[in-house]
Design goal:
The protein is an alpha/beta fold and 326 residues long. It folds into two domains: 214 residues, LarA, N-terminal domain (Rossmann fold); 85 residues, 2-Layer Sandwich (Alpha-Beta Plaits). Helices cover 32% and strands 18% of the residues. It has 13 helices and 13 strands. Strands 5, 6, 7, 8 and 9 form a five-stranded mixed β-sheet that branches. The protein is globular, with a radius of gyration of 19 Å. The two termini are 27 Å apart. It binds iron/sulfur cluster (2 copies). The site of one iron/sulfur cluster has 13 residues, from α11.
Length: 326
């Protein structure tokens, strides 16, 4: 992620981090590390930690976990070896602290996807080039999750994000914390709260097929009441969108969502150009523009734009843009 202040609801609420750190300190562990890892080498990790509030909330325990990496073998059909954070790999106990959010590519971003953060900086964006569908990307995310399965997951659902997450959705007050030692069950509960069926989400389908956890909420032991959040907007909410997602790509391949720049918000900082893993985003005239042929719809540009200037169009708008030659 890029540098987003806590009120944007993009990154984990600093109050959650501080509460966890303060609780852990009571047990006097040898060392506590609050790890963060930006999505791009073009961002200063310390600056991001200050803006997100993680630095102060870490109470002296902050570390850029991408500063030291090691190569590990990975069971994956996409890649044999990966660089991951040494700190994460060598930690005795990992508490994964994701946020309750939607995601335009993977529908949800939660505990499983948060472990993508063990991949150093810009290497995350490059991994998008290894796969060509949401299902394949989900497979890769679960491959990475399996490198080091977290011991405990504590989800910040105080202020969640609905709609066009993970950065440009709307904040939603939920006022909950959700915790589990199983990330798959935790994400399934989050999906149900969003009004989604866990077995329709690729990430959860892959994890279930690998026997990594239960995704049927009726088989998950839950303390507390599990309720769908009224009016929660998911990335693919409408019936027409669902039909379009299922049918249109097979007919015209028109459904590929290509980001569009909002010229009123763009400050021409070029971060979107720097993070694009396939060099699809380039200046065209004064402003950046995505090349439709090259773009792989990974939305890394959207995740890193500090000014919310990237629009991910609806399927109707996307078809209109394509017809206009954009
Ligand atoms: S779209 Fe965002 S990231 Fe790209 S140049 Fe404009 S402000 Fe910067
Ligand atoms: S322009 Fe396309 S490929 Fe490049 S970062 Fe954005 S969504 Fe990904």
């Amino acid at each position: 992620m890029g540098p987003f202040p806590p009120e944007r609801g993009v990154t984990t609420d600093p109050r959650v981090i501080l509460a966890i750190v303060q609780e852990l300190k009571k047990y006097k562990p040898k060392e506590i590390i609050v790890g963060d890892n930006s999505g791009s080498i073009h961002f200063d990790p310390l600056k991001i930690a200050k803006i997100t509030g993680i630095l102060d909330a870490s109470d002296g325990c902050y570390s850029n976990i991408a500063r030291e990496v090691l190569k590990v073998k990975v069971e994956s059909k996409f890649i044999d070896e990966l660089f991951i954070s040494r700190i994460v790999k060598e930690a005795d106990y990992i508490i994964n602290v994701p946020k309750f959010k939607t995601h335009m590519l993977t529908t949800i971003t939660g505990a499983i996807k948060n472990m993508f953060g063990i991949i150093p900086g810009g290497k995350k964006a490059q991994l998008h080039t290894l796969n060509r569908s949401t299902y394949e990307f989900a497979e890769l995310l679960v491959d990475i999750y399996q490198i080091r399965i977290p011991d405990l997951n504590i989800m910040d659902a105080i202020i969640g994000m609905e709609g066009a997450g993970p950065t440009n959705g709307k904040t939603k007050i939920i006022n909950k914390m959700i915790s589990s030692d199983n990330a798959i069950s935790l994400d399934s509960v989050m999906a149900v709260m969003m009004g989604l069926k866990p077995d329709t989400i690729e990430l959860l389908q892959v994890a279930k097929d690998r026997n990594l956890g239960e995704i049927d909420a009726s088989n998950i032991s839950i303390d507390g009441e599990l309720k769908v959040i009224s009016g929660f907007k998911t990335p693919h909410n409408g019936l027409l969108q669902k039909i379009a997602k299922a049918v249109v790509p097979h007919v015209f391949n028109f459904n590929k969502v290509i980001p569009v720049i909002d010229h009123n918000k763009c400050k021409i900082c070029k971060k979107c150009i720097e993070v694009c893993p396939v060099s699809a985003m380039n200046l065209k005239g004064k402003y950046p523009e995505a090349d439709r042929k090259r773009c792989i719809s990974c939305f890394c540009c959207d995740e890193h734009c500090p000014y919310g200037a990237i629009i991910l169009p609806s399927w109707q708008q996307n078809i209109f843009n394509r017809l206009k030659g954009k």
